[in-house]
Amino acid sequence: MSEESTRAGYVALIGEPNAGKSTLLNRMVGAKVSIVTHKVQTTRSRIRGVALEGQAQLVFVDTPGLFRPRRGLDRAMVAAAWGGTADADIVLLLVEAHRGLTEGVQAILDSLDEKVGRRPVALVINKIDKVKAEALLALTQALNEAHAFEATFLISAERGHGTEDLKAWLGARMPEGPWLYPEDQLADLPLRMIAAEITREKLTLRLHQELPYELTVETEAWEEREDGSARLDQVIYVARDGHKGIVLGRKGETVKGVGQAARTELETFMGRRVHLFLQVKVRPNWLEEAERYSEMGLDFKDSK
C-alpha cells in the first residue's frame, strides 16, 4: 500500500472501571487482547490492540479505569490511564448507560480539558440494552451539555450493536500516513505479558472479590520446544501467607483449575500446544517493588 492511500492513528479508551473498555477493544480488534471480567480494575497497564478499518489502521489504547486512588498501585493505574491519552489522535469516553452520570463520570468530565487538551473526544454510551430509550435520550442530552463532544455513539460492546458505525467514524478520522504495525499484528504487548494477563484473568474470575488486587502474575521463563510447542513458567505473587493457601486451594485444586483454563486459552490464542507451569510465591512487599510495576507496564514513580 502506498503511504498516501493509508491512514493510521491512536484511539484512547477512557472511563470508569467496568465501563466496557476492554470488551470494546476486543470487539474492535476481533480477538481477545485485554482482560474482561465482571470485577472492576482488572486492566492494570495500557494495552494496545490493533484493528483495521478499510485502509485505516486503528491502534486502540485500553487504559485502566479512572477512579479515586487509595494506594500506590491505584495511583500508578490512574496515571497510566490519563497517560494513555497523551499520544491519542482521538479519545473515547465510555459511560455505562444504566449507571449514567455518576460522581466518577462527573470527575472525569471535570478533568477532560486539563488532561486531554485539544484532542477530540467522542462520547460512547455503552450497554444500551440495559436501559429504556427515554433514559438513554436524557443521559445523552445531560452528557453533551456537560462537555462538547465531537460525536456521540450508542453501543453495546458485548453484543456488537453500533460498534461498526463507531469503527467507520474512527477510520475516516485517522491521520493519513503509513500503518504503524504489521497487518497481521493484533497487539503490541509482549507475548509473555499477554500470557501472564490471561492467567491473572482466570485467577480474578475464580477467587474471592478482594484477593485479585493483592496478586500479580509474571511469566518467568518461556521455552520454545522442537515439536513446536512452548513451555511457560509463571509465578503468582501474593502479599500474604493466607493468600497462598486460597490461591492453591484444597489439595491444589484451585491453582490446577486456573492453570487448565489459562492453558486452554493460551493454546487457542497462540494456535499451538502450550505446557503451563504455575508457582505461588509470597512477597509481602510486592506492591512496593519497582520491578513488579515494570512487569505490569506501569511506572513505579506514579505510585508515590
TrEMBL record:
**What residues does the Era-type G domain cover?**
7-176
Signal peptide as annotated in the record: none
| Gene Ontology molecular function: any one | GTP binding
Entries under Pfam families matching the protein: KH_2, MMR_HSR1
Where do the record's region annotations for G3 lie? 62-65
Compartments where located: Cytoplasm; Cell membrane
- Cite a GO CC annotation: plasma membrane
Question: What keywords are assigned to this protein?
Answer: Cell membrane, Cytoplasm, GTP-binding, Membrane, Nucleotide-binding, Ribosome biogenesis, RNA-binding, rRNA-binding
- Region annotated G4 sits at 126-129
Domain of life of the native organism: Bacteria
Where do the segments described as G1 lie? 15-22
Q: What CDD domains does the record tag this protein with?
A: Era (cd04163), KH-II_Era (cd22534)
- The residues covered by the KH type-2 domain are 207-284
Q: Which PROSITE patterns match?
A: G_ERA, KH_TYPE_2
Topology in the lipid bilayer is annotated as:
Peripheral membrane protein
Binding sites annotated in the UniProt record for GTP: 15-22, 62-66, 126-129
- For the region G2, give the residue spans: 41-45
What is the purpose of this protein?
An essential GTPase that binds both GDP and GTP, with rapid nucleotide exchange. Plays a role in 16S rRNA processing and 30S ribosomal subunit biogenesis and possibly also in cell cycle regulation and energy metabolism.
Give the NCBIfam families listed for this entry.
Answer: era (TIGR00436), PRK00089.1 (NF000908), small_GTP (TIGR00231)
* Family of the protein in this entry: Belongs to the TRAFAC class TrmE-Era-EngA-EngB-Septin-like GTPase superfamily. Era GTPase family.
Assembly and partners are described as:
Monomer.
Supply the name of the protein.
GTPase Era
